[in-house]
């Protein structure tokens, strides 16, 4: 963006909107202004950062350019606007106090938490008052969202408020040339929060002793709870399988792969494969967990038998200091919670609950205000796809083309996030989790209240899922606000459209697990022609019975039996398939009887369910120990070089009966599961592309939007994108919000805004 160059001295007002608070933006502007001989001032206001800049026109133009090109790494500028002002009389450049106008029409963003920066790691060794200070931070790094209670972002409105700065910190805070100028959470060994450790009935307060004890316990195969940025984590040596299995037992019912924190990038590469995009993401200031192909060197218990590894790098000073003392190069670092409960954030709860399963608890005395779990990403088609959007991302908004003010979208049920609208910003919550859990639901309603207050949104309209029994739907209905019910998969597709500012008819393909359809069946393989206002469902995978309803999601063997019974009838029992042997005739007969009598056998077209069925058929997962385990295991073993496929039929809908028969044939002829899985992925991809081409022939539409949890499957998504891009389609996939239910609140918000703009409500 270039301002017009006018001769002579002039003054302009520059408004910078976006993520510009809490990222060292004002000191950056100050130094930039000084370098360009600009006078005037900068201040934080509710609508963004405001600058009055006076100087010669060339300097002003360069100054405005540099704001965009040289901004701090964690800043994200949405817009820079300039307006000419009468010439001001400034003798220098200043940083003015924050505005705190609660009624301001616009509001700027709150920064996500930023991993400790390289300069702070240097200070950790050299700066006298911060040697080994484990909560070191600066204008460019440190906690943000996790400690913020209100806006504008100033220390008094964070959980750092109760810590008075020492003389040295105070001077640094006020010295414009210091790296910590206006770093709100500034602290040092003299004045900042401190770490403590509870181990073996003892409280350890000496920090060096805490590090040594933690390291020796971890290296010795013990389990230690460690307070992170947005909650507590449970750590143990990632190379000790017995400890890992013990931890799995202690956490209860949890078969999810554990994330692994590696000492450094080289150690990641010892254990995992990573290309340049994956390394960039691993090392980014967001420091997400990145799903990488493993080299098979970690014990089986880490990823619970999957070949992939959820890898990440240290992001807190404490992690770096701990690795200096540790012998192991890899630690399991899993969320400190039990099954579906939210990650524990308070010290007291950690003592009460985590201390029962951990040998020690390491904590500090700064409160976590907003809980933020670790984020999880995966590179698909050379770009990051977010699987869990939390630390490092939340609560950065997604810009919208439509005005979404004062709409609350309550999200789904599992992997819940909610979303509130303010002007043209959709503000997504951090990952909340499964609302069926009582504590998670409390976290949910508390977070909605906090977001309303923090972002000064007063909802006038609420959008919810079509499913009447979701806790989020009930929450929406109890709000007493005008409510709009949104079909689950329409919300998925529109969430992806919103990321790409698409507001037109598209071919929307949603492959998902479950979602209530408007014919009363369970959907999840939709081919829509849709826009944000409406959808037409042109095709789907053929319905299959889901014996036991929700139970069939947790027990993929039920889907396999249901599909075989639907296709083969009674012949199924004479097949002598491994699945039939493992499940046992008694259970099969009982299930087929339930299907004959149509007892609790809703119909589903969920793409996830056919992946479940095939996974169970191959004996990979008969009962899930975590969500989407069966499809993940099927993808995990898929032969990458397989190019063969099974037959399928497309009429109006897509039938995979012939596919299943082909799989049975292969199974009986001893074809390896890896090859079968590869062929199955190819089949789904081919059928999908054929259907897209068919819809294009009817409609002329060339834009294809792919959403839904099944598109977290890297093999499937890459195959489909490659194939249809090669045929000249414009393909849109997710990168800012999850393809899974963590993204649907964004779609709900946009759909509600569209309906409101057409005065349908
Ligand atoms: Zn720093
Ligand atoms: Zn200090
Ligand atoms: Fe979904």
Radius of gyration: 27 Å
How far is the N terminus from the C terminus? 39 Å
Beta-strand fraction estimate: 15-25%
Count every helix, treating DSSP H or I runs of 4 or more residues as helices.
23
- Bound heterogens, unique: zinc ion, fe (iii) ion
CATH superfamily of one domain: DHBP synthase
- Percent helix range: 25-40%
Task: Going across the biggest sheet, name each strand in turn.
Answer: 7-6-14-8-9-13-10-12-11-15-16
Would you state the CATH class of one domain?
A: Alpha Beta
Q: How many β-strand stretches?
A: 31
Mean pLDDT score, rounded?
94
What does this 3D model show about the protein?
There is one protein chain. The protein is an alpha+beta fold and 761 residues long. Among the domains are: 9-95, Alpha-Beta Plaits (2-Layer Sandwich), CATH 3.30.70.100; 110-193, DHBP synthase, CATH 3.90.870.30; 195-364, DHBP synthase; 544-686, ATPase, nucleotide binding domain (Nucleotidyltransferase, domain 5, 2-Layer Sandwich). The protein is built from 23 helices and 31 strands. Strands 7-6-14-8-9-13-10-12-11-15-16 form an eleven-stranded mixed beta sheet, sandwiched between helices. Strands 17-20-19-18-21-22 form a six-stranded mixed beta sheet, with helices on both faces. It has a five-stranded mixed beta sheet with strand order 4-1-3-2-5. Strand 19 (419-422) and strand 20 (425-428) form a beta hairpin. The chain is globular, with a radius of gyration of 27 Å. It starts with 8 loop residues before the first strand and ends with a helix. Mean pLDDT is 94; it is low at 1-7. It binds zinc ion (ZN) (2 copies) and fe (iii) ion. Residues 165-166, 168-169, 187-188, 190-191 line the site of one zinc ion.
């Amino acid at each position: 963006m270039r301002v017009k160059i006018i001769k002579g001295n002039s003054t302009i007002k520059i408004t910078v909107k976006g993520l510009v608070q809490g990222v060292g933006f004002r000191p950056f502007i100050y130094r930039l202004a000084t370098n360009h001989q600009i006078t005037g001032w900068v201040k934080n206001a509710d609508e963004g950062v405001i600058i009055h800049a006076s100087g010669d026109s060339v300097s002003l133009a360069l100054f405005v350019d540099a704001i965009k090109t040289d901004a701090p790494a964690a800043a994200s500028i949405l817009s820079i606007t300039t307006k000419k002002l009468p010439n001001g009389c400034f003798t220098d450049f200043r940083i003015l106090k924050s505005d705190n106008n609660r009624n301001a029409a616009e509001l700027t963003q709150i920064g996500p938490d930023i991993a400790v920066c390289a300069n702070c790691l240097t200070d950790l060794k050299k700066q006298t008052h911060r040697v080994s200070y484990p909560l070191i931070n600066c204008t460019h790094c440190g906690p943000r969202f996790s400690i913020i209670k209100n806006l504008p972002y100033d220390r008094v409105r964070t959980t750092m408020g109760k810590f008075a700065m020492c003389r040295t910190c105070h001077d640094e805070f006020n010295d414009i040339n210091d790296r910590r100028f206006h770093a709100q959470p500034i602290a040092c060994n003299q004045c900042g929060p401190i770490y403590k450790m509870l181990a073996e009935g003892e409280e350890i307060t000496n920090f060096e002793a805490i590090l040594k004890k933690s390291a020796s316990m971890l290296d010795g195969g013990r389990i230690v709870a460690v307070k992170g940025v947005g909650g507590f984590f449970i750590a143990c040596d990632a190379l000790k399988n017995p400890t890992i299995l013990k931890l799995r037992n202690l956490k209860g019912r949890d078969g999810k792969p554990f994330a692994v924190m590696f000492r450094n990038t080289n150690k990641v590469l010892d254990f995992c494969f990573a290309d340049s995009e994956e390394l960039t993401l691993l090392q980014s200031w967001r420091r997400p967990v990145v799903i990488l192909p493993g080299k098979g060197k970690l014990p089986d218990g880490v990823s619970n038998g999957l070949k992939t590894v959820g890898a990440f790098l240290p992001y807190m000073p404490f992690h770096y200091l701990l690795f200096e003392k540790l012998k192991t190069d890899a630690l399991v670092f899993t969320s400190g919670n039990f099954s579906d409960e939210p990650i524990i954030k308070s010290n007291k709860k950690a003592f009460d609950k985590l201390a029962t399963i951990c040998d020690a608890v390491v904590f500090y005395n700064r409160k976590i205000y907003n809980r933020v779990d670790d984020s999880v990403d995966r590179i698909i088609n050379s770009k990051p796809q977010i699987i869990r959007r939390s630390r490092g991302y939340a609560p950065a908004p997604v810009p919208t083309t439509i005005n979404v003010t004062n709409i609350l979208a309550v999200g789904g049920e599992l992997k819940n996030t909610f979303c509130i609208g303010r002007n043209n910003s959709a503000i997504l919550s951090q990952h909340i989790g499964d609302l069926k859990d009582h504590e998670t639901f409390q976290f949910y309603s508390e977070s909605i209240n906090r977001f309303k207050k923090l972002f000064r949104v007063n909802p006038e309209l609420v959008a919810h899922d079509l499913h009447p029994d979701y806790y989020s739907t009930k929450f929406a209905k109890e709000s007493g606000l005008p409510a709009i019910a949104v079909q689950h998969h329409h919300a998925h597709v529109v969430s992806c459209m919103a990321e790409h500012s698409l507001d037109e008819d598209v071919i929307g393909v949603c492959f998902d697990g479950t979602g209530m359809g408007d014919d009363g069946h369970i959907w999840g393989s939709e081919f829509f022609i849709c826009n944000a206002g409406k959808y037409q469902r042109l095709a789907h995978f053929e319905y299959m019975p889901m014996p036991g309803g929700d139970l069939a999601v947790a027990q993929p063997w039920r889907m396999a039996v249901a599909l075989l019974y639907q296709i083969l009838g009674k012949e199924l029992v004479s097949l002598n398939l491994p699945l039939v042997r493992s499940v046992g005739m008694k259970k099969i007969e009982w299930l087929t009887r339930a299907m004959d009598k149509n007892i609790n056998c809703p119909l589903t077209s969920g793409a996830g369910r056919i992946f479940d069925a095939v996974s169970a058929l191959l004996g990979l997962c008969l009962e899930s120990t975590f969500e989407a385990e069966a499809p993940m295991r099927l993808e995990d073993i898929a032969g990458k070089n397989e190019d063969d496929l099974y037959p399928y039929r497309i009429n109006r809908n897509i039938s995979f009966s012939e596919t299943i028969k082909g799989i049975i044939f292969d199974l009986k002829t001893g074809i390896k599961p890896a090859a079968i899985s590869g062929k199955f992925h190819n089949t789904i991809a081919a059928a999908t592309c054929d259907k897209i081409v068919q819809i294009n022939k009817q409609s002329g539409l060339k834009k294809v939007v792919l959403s839904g949890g099944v598109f977290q499957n890297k093999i499937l998504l890459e195959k489909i994108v490659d194939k249809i891009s090669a045929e000249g389609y414009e393909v849109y996939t997710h990168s800012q919000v999850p393809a899974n239910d963590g993204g649907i609140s964004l779609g709900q918000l946009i759909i509600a805004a569209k309906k409101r703009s057409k005065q349908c409500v």
